[in-house]
Automatic annotation (TrEMBL):
Family statement: Belongs to the 'GDSL' lipolytic enzyme family.
Listed InterPro entries: GDSL, SGNH_hydro_sf, SGNH_plant_lipase-like
UniProt keyword annotation of Nucleotide-binding present: no
Residues in the signal sequence: 1-21
Entry's Gene Ontology molecular function annotations: hydrolase activity, acting on ester bonds
Top-level division of the source organism's lineage: Eukaryota
Pfam families: Lipase_GDSL
Keywords from the UniProt entry: Glycoprotein, Hydrolase, Signal
The name this protein goes by in its record: SGNH hydrolase-type esterase domain-containing protein
Amino acid sequence: MENVKVFSIIIAVFSVLSVESVGLKDLKTCNFGAVYNFGDSNSDTGGGSAAFWPAGKPCGETFFGRPVGRGCDGRLIIDFIAEHLGLPHLSPYLDSIGTSFRYGANFAIGGSTIRPQNESMSLNGVSPFSLDIQIVQFDQFKDRTGHFYNRSYPRHHRNLPRPEDFSKALYIFDIGQNDIAAGLRKKNDSAFHASVPDIVDQLAKAVQNLYEHGARTFWVHNTGPIGCLPVSLHYHDIKPEELDEQGCLKAQNAYSMEFNRQLKARVIKLREELPHAALTYVDIYAAKYELIGNAKKQGFVEAANICCGFHEDEIQVYCGHKQNINGTEIYAGSCENPSDFISWDGVHYTEAANRWVAHRIINGSFSDPPLPIKHACHIP
Ligand SMILES: *[C@@H]1O[C@H](CO)[C@@H](O)[C@H](O)[C@H]1NC(C)=O
Ligand SMILES: *[C@@H]1O[C@H](CO)[C@@H](O)[C@H](O)[C@H]1NC(C)=O
Ligand SMILES: *[C@@H]1O[C@H](CO)[C@@H](O)[C@H](O)[C@H]1NC(C)=O
Ligand SMILES: *[C@@H]1O[C@H](CO)[C@@H](O)[C@H](O)[C@H]1NC(C)=O
Ligand SMILES: *[C@@H]1O[C@H](CO)[C@@H](O)[C@H](O)[C@H]1NC(C)=O
């Protein structure tokens, strides 16, 4: 299971967006009504736990008080977005217990990639729920909930989406980090670069498919700086010249940046192809990189520190796991104060870091176009 998390990492471009004053007061707040999310562990609110092994303690300890399927001590960026929109946290599509899909559904699963990987969960922790499958699941979800909505008594509608909300919903993508992790694992620079147009194209196909099903508002996160993840730093015998000014692996971040550069160009092209769609590109990479570069100033310990897990002397015991080392059992528990840390488990961010990033992206300051999320339905 730890592999799922390891490979479920996130990336971006340093495009400094000119936050022009788009006549905000003239724009009406969008009434999204529902959110549909597609992604990996960065936005998995319990899908992976429903499909495979549940996230164990101490995950969830900060906010939920128990493990709730998130690879985090508390809430994820997607949770803060839902709260900001006045909606409940998203139920995972695959979760059969206690779910409500009235305000949307979450198709994200830890370990998922955009492209199917020809690998497996048992082999190397790669999720079979690649983006194409998540989209097929969405199509089926829309079709079947519509069918039940029509047939059932109104009192049974409570947990079903209102059919008219699909065209008004916000469709979020946060996926690509594991395609990059796979690239780092299996491809040299030139082979990876050659594969990026296809990766980005498959994401565009997912958007097009949803558009054909009536979706109109898309909010696309790029991928974070994978070379800044503490786990990458603990795995390597690193030479100083491999690191950038924030202590991140330059070569790994270059993969993220290349993906993001092409993703942004593809999103801009999609605006021409889908004239009735409002497409926002969100520079998660820049937000996370800013946080990492200003960790101390923002009240965090250094970004390379991990709250939960044991990573010393070439020994890697992942958050919540136990391992016998020379006759001594090591339990990889969490730190005393997770909100001081940026990294929860070496791969995933803490709730405190997720809140920091969410607050910055929600008002549009890392977006193209630079509209707050509540105005993302408008085509500038
Ligand atoms: C997986 O295998 C199929 C068939 O050989 C191939 O077309 C596809 O490109 C492969 N996917 C990846 C990500 O390598
Ligand atoms: C449900 O009913 C509405 C209104 O009669 C109809 O337009 C729609 O196609 C139906 N949906 C399904 C899935 O049967
Ligand atoms: C990179 O990988 C490709 C495909 O496996 C191979 O053809 C090429 O020779 C490699 N390039 C370098 C510089 O190793
Ligand atoms: C475990 O034992 C080996 C062999 O004696 C030693 O080299 C290694 O440093 C020990 N590891 C730890 C964590 O104590
Ligand atoms: C967005 O919010 C962040 C964090 O509160 C703030 O620093 C930034 O100035 C805001 N940007 C805009 C355009 O409102």
